[in-house]
Amino acid sequence: MIPDQPRLRAADLAIFSLVFVSGLAACGRVPGQFEVLQNQVPNAGCTIDTNETVYRGTGYLDVSLVGAGSLSAYWVFPLVVNNLPGAAAGSPDGNEIDVHSFAVDIGPSKYGSLPANVQALFDRINGDKSAADYALLHYSLPWSVTIKSGGGKAATAVNGFPVALAQQVRATGDVGISPTSMVVNVRTRIFGSTNTQDIESDPFDFPVYVCNGCLVGDVLPCPYTAKPANPGNDCNIAQDAVVDCCSFNGELMCPPAVVGAQ
25: how many CB neighbours lie within 10 A of its CB? Predict the structure, then answer.
């Protein structure tokens, strides 16, 4: 049985973050048969469900909050739908899709241009498909889930922006504190198979705004003596929510250390 509310544990996230260059066999795609409906908003504790009313249309990534040990700079949570015709009552589901992987491609967005030095970085990466860095913008990720036909849904998670890419983008010096200083398009596709065919989802394009410091809230000396007003995102401190921090010897701790809070 596939649970409706998978919890993203540290071990799971480590598996999701394995990056390797895409080498997928050709798959069939008929628009509307297999698709990503939207990007889900995580619940408390970083649980992801299939509730269609809770979604995010735009992402925000703060590269200043991406730690070297992070598993992803930005997570996307695709709600995947199998619209192949459902099976008759009591019959085997021949259109059930066994998902085996994601493919992710990161590039410029139609909603804005890249800063000059970031564009140069992307051009360099795209210029040599044999180089290791090419897998920072174009990569595949393993995933396993079974989705019933006739509108079956699955809540999933995919590394939408590698940590090493965020580090290189920040190092260009071209990304500012403004929440809209840079925007990229994160294109996600899902690959799987039924009993009779390989199948590829419609591409899902998701805009992610990238900044350097825009999600950092209050900064006070460490430690806090009360819980912070802005605790940040439960799945990844570098995305989609303001987080309060504390400062210790010039280093930020986000969220802050707290002592004495009830």
Answer: 7
- What tokens does 79 get? 């709600």
- Those residues with Cβ within 8 angstroms of residue 72's Cβ, 6 or more apart along the chain or in another chain: 13, 16, 17, 159, 160, 161, 162, 163, 236
User: In terms of domains, do 169 and 89 share one?
Assistant: yes
Q: How far from the centroid of its chain's Cα atoms is residue 198's Cα?
A: 24
pLDDT exceeds 50 at position 15: no
Kindly report whether the global pTM for this prediction surpasses the value 0.85: yes
Instruction: Give the pLDDT confidence score for residue 249 in this predicted structure.
Output: 86
b/e per residue 134-150 (b: at least 16 CB within 10 A): bbbbbbbbebebebbbe
pLDDT, averaged across the chain = 89
d(CA 161, CA 140): 12
**What is the residue type of 138?**
H
Q: In terms of DSSP bridges, do strands 78-82 and 158-161 run parallel, antiparallel, or are they unpaired? A: unpaired
Question: Are residue 35 and residue 65 in the same domain, yes or no?
Answer: yes
Same domain for 70 and 127, yes or no, is: yes
pLDDT for the residue 89: 86
For residue 3, is pLDDT > 80? no
Return the bridge partners of 189, or none: 103
Containing domain of residue 223, as a range? Answer: 215-262
For residues 36 and 149, state if they share a domain: yes
* Residue 125, amino acid: I
Distances (CA, A) of 249 to 207, 221, 226: 36, 9, 21
- Mean pLDDT of the region 97-107: 97
4 is a domain residue: no
